[in-house]
Amino acid sequence: MSQQLPPLNALRAFEAVARHLSFTKAAEELSVTRAAISHQIKYLEDYLGFALIERKNRAIVLSPQAEAALPQLREGFNNLAEAVRLMRSATPTLSITVCTAPSFASKWLIPRLPRFSRQHPEIDMQINSNAMLVDADLQQGAGAIDSFFRQNQVDVVISFATGGHAGEDAEKLFPVSAVPVCSPALVGNAHPHPLLTPQDLAFHALLHDDTNYVGHPTWAKWLQLHGVEGVNANRGLHFNHVSLALDAAVDGQGVLLSLKPLAQSEIDAGRLCVPFDLLMPLEHAYYIVRPQKAGEGGNQQACDAFVEWLREEAQLQIKASGKES
């Protein structure tokens, strides 16, 4: 018959106090309050029926019983730590490869990945940010999808596509709109021509994300949609990557028309703002694409966990913005 275990949290608190000879340092190490450490020591002393720690001239002195037991107690904690390490090393590592466009990877996916890693530390991930693979192969139709996954050894794709091009089994992650974004400095009264209405764009440089992908928005389409006249849609600064365009916008160099999900982290941080909330809904959206013939075993479980996490993150984004992106 197994013996009843002693209060492990109290023993851990005592071991830390005995090692540091300080309640304060023990509390800092265990990330609790000093009062919590005192409570655990009192609880352990009541459990054992004798004192473990004495205070003499404001110094901590261990009782003879505590001194005698301390070496074996430390050995016991070391054994527990080694046992946990062995259990973890015996657990097979799960790994998945995710393919998506560089812009989505850097501006949406990667900033959120620490949350996935905290939820699933057992899953390793490789990010393949090759936009040409995603756009050129997946959008050839459903018949090319399984071949794409086999040839590129990819488990999950996040594609910017239309429903017909994403594949029959594709799942829409979230819809996308384009929105003007700029530095808050451009909307303040300190600017000689603050951005109050779309017509004020005539006094500001337009920033263009000219990344080559199907379905990307343009200032010409946005201006036409909202009936804005007197603004040259082609002037301004042009960039071949969204990160460069966003950096220029943050720096106050002009107004950028961006996919809102790609600019959302800068908006949330206050580095960018939306001067007028005139969205341009896009036909394209972000889709989760998986092979029609899914794998089996642990890899399949890892993919399922990642896709479920993606759904949760998409819903969090939609709720935070109060509308669809």
From TrEMBL:
Segments forming domain HTH lysR-type: 6-63
A GO biological process held by the record: DNA-templated transcription
InterPro entries the record matches: LysR-type_TF_proteobact-type, LysR_HTH_N, LysR_subst-bd, WH-like_DNA-bd_sf, WH_DNA-bd_sf
Keyword Transcription regulation (UniProt): yes
Source organism, top-level taxon: Bacteria
Keyword set includes Transcription: yes
Keywords, in A-Z order: DNA-binding, Transcription, Transcription regulation
A single GO molecular function term of this UniProt record: DNA-binding transcription factor activity
Family statement: Belongs to the LysR transcriptional regulatory family.
Name used for this protein in its record: Transcriptional regulator, LysR family
Species classification: Bacteria, Pseudomonadati, Pseudomonadota, Gammaproteobacteria, Thiotrichales
